[in-house]
Amino acid sequence: MAQAARTQRNLLALLNSDGQSHPVENTLAVVTLVLGAIAALSALSPGLHLVSSWVGLIGIGTGLWGQYISSTTAERFLLIIGLGAAGVGFYLGLAHGGLFGGVVG
What is the reported pTM? Predict the structure, then answer.
């Protein structure tokens, strides 16, 4: 019964709720969350539309791949939050000037 009394208090223990290690899935979840935060925050400034649109697009791609291979609910939760933020940053970046921002065309 000593095992039942132990609690793990780090982020990886929360993401690995099934007791197995998922390094690729955890990395994709955290990377998607970080890319989504960068895209959403850079979308607040119209001058950073290139950053927000490209980082948002990459964040959407990593988030979708992470959803495809995710193993636990906690990973999926972080992926959905990151995907939403990346989507907002991507679409606002497109609205402010697009992926190429007048460089092409």
Answer: 0.85
pLDDT of residue 101: 78
d(CA 84, CA 32): 10
- Asked if 15 contacts 22 with a C-beta cutoff of 8 angstroms, the reply is yes
pLDDT tens per residue, range 33-76: 999 999 999 999 988 999 999 999 999 999 999 999 998 999 99
Contact between 70 and 18 under an 8 Å Cβ cutoff? The reply is no
Whole-angstrom distance between the N-terminal and C-terminal Cα of the chain?
Answer: 68
DSSP the chain: -HHHH----SHHHHH-TTSS--HHHHHHHHHHHHHHHHHHHHTTSGGGHHHHHHHHHHHHHHHHHHHHH--SHHHHHHHHHHHHHHHHHHHHHHHHTTTTTTS--
